[in-house]
Specification:
Blueprint (H helix, E strand, L loop, with lengths): L1 H23 L3 H5 L6 H4 L2 E9 L5 E11 L6 H9 L3 E5 L6 E5 L14 E6 L2 E2 L12 E7 L9 E2 L8 E2 L4 H8 L3 H6 L1 H11 L6 H15 L7 E5 L2 E5 L3 E3 L1 E5 L7 E5 L5 E3 L4 E4 L3 E9 L3 E10 L5 E4 L3 E5 L3 E3 L2 E4 L8 E4 L5 E3 L4 E4 L3 E9 L2 E10 L8 E6 L4 E3 L4 E5 L4 E6 L6 E12 L2 E8 L10 E10 L5 E11 L4 E7 L2 E3 L5 E4 L4 E9 L2 E4 L5 E5 L3 E6 L2 E6 L8 E8 L6 E9 L5 E5 L3 E4 L2 E2 L4 E2 L13 E5 L8 E5 L5 E4 L5 E4 L3 E9 L6 E10 L12 E6 L2 E3 L14 E5 L5 E9 L7 E9 L3 E9 L9 E10 L7 H19 L9 H9 L4 E2 H16 L6 H13 L12 H6 L9 H13 L12 H9 L9 E2 L6 E2 ...
Parallel strand pairs: 1-7, 11-18, 20-27, 30-35, 38-45, 47-55, 56-62, 63-70, 71-77, 78-84, 85-91, 92-99
Antiparallel strand pairs: 1-2, 3-4, 5-6, 5-7, 8-9, 10-13, 12-16, 14-17, 15-16, 17-18, 19-22, 21-25, 23-26, 24-25, 26-27, 28-29, 28-31, 32-33, 32-34, 34-35, 36-37, 36-39, 39-40, 39-43, 41-44, 42-43, 44-45, 46-50, 48-49, 51-54, 52-53, 54-55, 57-60, 58-61, 59-60, 61-62, 64-65, 66-67, 68-69, 72-73, ...
Helix pairs in contact: 5-8, 7-8, 9-10, 9-20, 10-12, 10-20, 12-14, 14-15, 14-16, 16-17, 16-18, 18-20
Length: 1527
Amino acid sequence: MGKTKSVIAKKLICAAMAVILIFAGLTPAAVYGGETPSQEQKQGTVTVTVEYLEKDGSARYFLEPKAAVLKEGMTVVDAAAAAYAGKGTVEDTGALYGISVTPTGETPVKESLLGDEKWVPFVNNDEVGNKYGDLHDGDVIRLIYTRNYLKDIEDFTPAADTAVGTLSINKNSLITKMGRLSDEQKEANKDVYEQALRAALVNTGSQQDAADAEKLIDGILNPEIPATGVSVTPKSLFMGVGERETLTAALIPENSSDKVTWTSSDENVAAVDEEGNVYAAGEGQAVITAAAGDNARAEVKVTVSGISATGIELDRKSISMAEGEGVRLTASLTPAETTDTVVYKSADTEVAAVDDSGLVVGLKAGKTKITATAGDVSAVCEVEVTARLQAAEPAVIFRHDDGRITEAADGVITLSSIDQGSFEIEGLEEGKTVEWECFEKVSEDGYDSTVVHIATGGRFYPHVGERRATATVRDENGRTKTMEFTLRVTGSGVSDLSVYWNGVPVSEDDPVYLDGSEQKKITVRGLKDGVLVSVPTQALEMSVSGDGCVSSSADGFNIGAQNGASDGESYIYTVALKEDESVSASFKAVHMEVAVTGIRVTCPEVFYIDMWNGLGGQYIGLTAYGQEGDRYEVEILPANASDKSVSWVSHNEDVAWYQAAYNNGIVPKKAGKASFTVISDASPAVSAEVEIEFRYKQPLLSAASSQEHYELKQYDSIELDLGVSPADATEQRFTWSYSQSGIVSVTDGVQGSGNSDGKKTTTHTMTALSPGTVTVTGVPADNTNSPEPVTFTVTVKEKTEKPVIDTDRYVTQNKIHAREYMKKQLEDNYVFESEWAIFTVLRTGGTLSQSNLDAYRDDLEREINSGSRMVPTDYFRIVMALLAMDDDPENFRGANVLAKLYDFQGLENYTSNMMTFTLLAYDAGGFEIPSDALWQREDLIGMILAFQNKSNGGFGLVDNVTVSVDITAMTLQALAPYNTEEWPEVQEAFAAGLEYLRGQLRSDCGYYVEGGDNACSVAQVIIALCSAGIDPLDPDNGFVRGEATLITKLDDFRQTEGFSTYTDQDGPDGLASYQIACALEAYDRFLGGKNGVYDLTDAEAGGVIPDGGQESGGAADGGESENGGEVSGGKDDKNTGDITGAETVPGAEIEVKNEQGEVIYRAVTDENGEIPDIPVTPGRYTFKEVLAPEGYALNETTCSFTVDENGQVSGDTVLRDDFTRFTLKKVGEHNEPLMGVAFSLKDERGAVVATALTDADGTAMFEKIPYGSYTVVESKPLPGYLPSGAQVTLTLDGTFVNPTEPIAIIPNERMKLTFKKVDTAGNPLAGISFTLIDAQSGTVAAHAVSDEKGEFEITGFTVGDWILREDEAPEGFNLMNDYPFHVGYNWKNDQTVTLVNIPNHYEFKKTDHRRKPLSGVRFGLYDDKGTFIRELISDENGIVRADNLVPGSYLIRETRPLDGYARTDEAITFTIDESYVPPQKLVRITNTPVIQTGVDLPIAPSMVVGLLMMAASVLLGLMRLLKKKHR
């Protein structure tokens, strides 16, 4: 019976296989259900669904996904009607009732009178109107009936969150594919189709359901049909060297889903690309194989013939050369038209090396032979290398990468632009180090940059020309010695460039093919002195048309296509000599699309929440560039897929979510489990799932309030002490509840340290809202250990009155103080980008001269006419300055600046501040925007609202996730005019924004932003409140904390001059000063009932004074005026250069002598600088200063005057005192002057008495300083520089100090970060190039290359977030992940970061049992899941090498031994990670020969020995047995 069952089963299997084979042989029409699209359909189609929501939120189809022909002028309603034809009608009934859908034989379904129930059309997930007609081929139209103003659509995001309302679950691809199914396919795959219908329906399927269903539909539309065979035309090729032919492959069956791959058995004979194009590289025979799937293969035999060389002759029979010398051999072939090429080879590469152009380089004393071979003929040159005689003293030399050495001649080292190598000092004593310097500052297109000719490590970067270079030798004790020389770089002498890929010439007619995202290395050669030589990339520039990609390495250019490039997209690359762009060559590259077939996501199963992102206000999670344990990796399969972009779907956003902004990655919110789906953007049916458990690194154990009861006055605010244990618990926030609402509120705040250490502090701010008693309960957010809640009671007493402040002190005087600082910044600086200073001075009541403003106008005109790129924030500044100057932004010297804003292309892709400032500019002058303008006010408001976070009300800069006080306040300033009933969505957003600002306010009325107590944040909030007519001092508005107010808070940032951004900042800055001035002006205007500070419809040219007038700070200023004149016997300062108009000097003690030298009078100058009533008689007198007033230097000049008989005085009667002035000079690392560095002068008590800024010469001047002892300290370095920390002490006692001679020259060191590039064994990696990128803007700030020690320094960065990116992986290594770092205000230069490159290769040796290398043995490379990756074959030395291995675990196993050898079961396993070091001693895998037994069973010698021993044992046993019987 069992046998019968077995037979039956076998028959059933055979029958099933027959059925499958029959179906596999069906025609495409039969498989797909048969209908060929008409020509009209080919013009374009859209796919339509009509979906109806019931009152309970469930949904059903009126129309399942169906394709409709797209016609000219179609609207969404037209398309829906066309698709619904035969099932009913779809009509646009007008504005009152909207869309009506009537199923055949049923009543119409229309819009309700109130509009809560209606049909809403969506195109590609975006909500559109009834008349929408901008349809395109492939669009998806979903007509959905909603019953509650779209609130019943679960995945609908309203327009306030995005530019238009959208459906967040993307089902478009699934719906499109379902619309392509025929009725036969639906019927034959009913279960699959029903599953897809559920997944595609609104409120039913998730994103993962849609992805799963799409895979199933793909299986119906594109069934996998394996190729059973492949035929190639022609069957064989006969080619001449250098010729090209194309092979054509046809799959069997024709509708097979497999793809053809091409390979060559010998690419030195015939090379083949992805399209079957064959290039005849050299004489011989090769086999081209076309393969498809697992079984289909076809071979084409290619015979390449040429004209064989019959003779070869070298121009030298022998060479005698010294070490480091280079001599080029030239070979002559017979016949001249031979197609054979010359190959050079050295018998001993340690003695002399030779390249493919015949250049022989002596490396070590000894003898060797150079053989030149062409086909079957060869010639030999004898080479003798003698030892090189080094200089008696250490000397600078240049060592070429190929081993040649170039010495200096008369102090000059001459190189060409194609020389590669490094400078070194020959004979340098051990222990000494060298730093090289050869660079120059260049200015191009208005930008300054530094061109490096010799890197600090000695690497040469050629630029044609002659320059001085310096080598500084430093011994172990720090003593230095300088060596100088001239570097002369000449042209290359190269002409006629040619381009190659893999040794095959490429051109515009013979393109290179790019499979997906793969990159191909392009090399360049050129003719030099009649010889074809390699041209290094350092001497070349490569450009590309279109969206092609290119990067360079030392040995070639890597080219590729942009992510997501379309199939067949082509690019033209042009390579040219830097020194002469006319020497160039071009070639074409064609992208061949490779589809995504799989996604693999790796990440830790458990992640410990710990570090805090202070800028983002959230935890730091898993990133793509993090360290082990903090990193996730997404691998797209295949590795060369064209489009590797993916989208993340977060399924537990209350625990963690994926944040693409700033590459933040997977960001945790709290402890718990979170799952994610990673979906391919190119192939949405391809996805991967990942789940992570998040735990707190330091779980909370307990917390308790330090008081059981609190008493507060209404609007008071205090910080709670909650006694958290442990003190460093990760999560210290609480969920607060109240026994009675509205009495108090508690807000938890988390502040980062301001550095990149990830540390944070948590505060708990309690604010009294209204009188009463309440019990407050705080439930810990961290319930890991189930800690008890925090409970206490609070009694709030009656509210205090509105705070009364000294308006003159805190508003008027502080405004003038800020304005005067901004005015000082304008001195000699009336240029483009000084707009805020001009606006601030004029808007706050100050004055500026007409000539100075004309200087600004001239520079602004130049900038506008230069065509330089500006963004909306630039145009906004210009508009505000022009309005303040009473100029017309719509016609500034013929330019319409406002039009630059309302027609700015791509504004929708910019950050929110661009839109905010555009709207502010519109309203600043009450401008009417043309109806055809690109951006109307309503457009801007819609885009701005999209940046609001719906959960907390704040607004963000780049998205609606990461929000800030400053951006929220600036946004409210722009929205203030629209906070009316006519704009209900603005009213709602405005109220939420104010609530966010209230919640962020601290107990001292300050805002903690970007790592500190921030003045700019306070100022922006004041402007926002005043713009909206909200009194910031009224406690009922929620911006008062007890006696603390926003206005008085600004006084905390006041400096001796101007204001600072942070309270702990030493010295003022322009950013805080202008914003505070504007904030106080806004409040002043609010009190006076005037226009807002940015509403300049009331502006007049009141602040502009005619030339010759006096610039001042305004009437309230009490500003200085210049007065005085020449007074006999008087004293004035000499700062003006003349007497008239000079300032008189009181307090100077003057001594008068007669002709006999007797002192006849001594007095002190009065307040007018005069000495009245000097008792003199006719005669000659002298007078001099004996004691200078404080702030002035003693003038030791003796003046004389004469009194005649009539009492008339002639001669000098005026002494001029110079200010007590002294200067310092600020220089950079190369003694270049630094402008804009701030210094503070402190007295003996440490109080700042004066400040000064360095000018263009790096000079800072202090003047009019009272006598005493002082210390000068640097208060504000330049961005990108460290504070020097130097302190200069001096005493002023009236002794003359020459202001032209600085009392000190203080150097500033650039902010820098030292990196060391090593492999996993710690060995340095030299010549690796890096790029420094601003993490926020994405702009490139600097480049660097590692030296021979693997070290390099990065400079050019400022405070902020940065990314260091490795440009290209070193040969044999994986590309390093981006290295992000944060630069804080306390940056230190004594940091060295080690960057590790992980090797990407593994080598071992294959031998027989006698250690003889075995060539041609085949191995399989597998990953840790056993998936086959590729085949490996041992070379002629038995070496097996696996290259291009990404980090992971691998296994190598022998798959096919050589004939005559038994396959070994020995396998190699290894893991490539940060600890992986390639084996220094090659692992050996041994094969054992087999003995032929007459049957097809290989027997190893060891087995033979064993069998003989067994036979001997048996024979011995028989003999013993016979012996016993015999006995």
